[in-house]
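Memo to structure team: turn this sequence into structure tokens by end of day. - J.P.
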Amino acid sequence: MAGIAQCLAGWLAVRRFTRIQPPPEPTEFPPVLLLKPLHGDEPLLEQALESACTQDYPNLRIVCGVQDSTDTAIPVVHRLQARFPNLTLVIDPTPHGSNHKVANLINMLAATPSAEILVIADSDIHAAPDWLRSVVATLAQPGMGLVTTLYTGRAAAIGVPEFLGCTAITHTFLPGALLARAIGRQDCLGATMALRAETLAAIGGLPALSNHLADDNELGRLVRAQGLTVALAATIPSTTVAETRLSDLLSHELRWARTICALVPAAFALSAIQYPIAWAILALALSGQDWAAALLALAWATRVMAGRGIDRALRPATPVPAALLPLRDLLSLGLVVAAYTGRRVRWRGAVLDMPRR
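Reply from structure team:
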């Protein structure tokens, strides 16, 4: 019942967020440097990068970076460079700490003239043309130190793993992030991170993140320690869900789960209530009673109704797969348990151990 209540609350939070009046667009457009760290030619990469290149922002430079001269993302960038002259590529294998993404960012920033505003965005983000305008307008508000965004899931292909991954992002993570903010959290969601150059310098620059696997969480913590706000922009891009095999999707989601578990273990345990269908299935299996069957029907119907309501509010590229929700809840609950059974994660070909807190 708690999970059903949270599901409904998350739906209402999404509706409320989409009705918030965004801040007025800036009358001036300060120079923006957009950094896109790359690793391989992932599905829909060219489309995602093109959405960055076609931003309706007049003072923008875009830098992509790789750490290997044979990286398969390089030809994709070269094709886009022929059409977008403000796109550059940095190839630099220099290591900086244990976080390869941050090392890539440090190398990119070192090879590029600085700008007033720095935006770091994942390679798989698909953004509307006004995404950057919205982010900069939010950052211009008083007391803002860091701007981030929610995001929905976008399936790279038609398949069960892709739909499972998308619904986990759009219909569980996204409303959960809004509910977390409603109780006072100001988490930095790493798909989009925007801050002023002076703010980055004040927290020690990118090297301050180089040994943190959860670099987005650490960046948010350091900015808040400066007495500044971590805000959500009104724009909601989508992120590619590319896994075509269930094992690959679960490996990816286990990395997320163990990362969050290492940062906030008690809160992560409480997040298990987000999966009411899974708890109802367990109740039915253990009791065999009619009330448990009715509870399962209620939980499933609520998740479908809330998911479709979120779809109407956000219009995501991949809508809620109603038939897959029981499997999705069972897998998600299993990942919560698995997160406490070890600290090892796989990330971009590397095996890492999460630090103990």
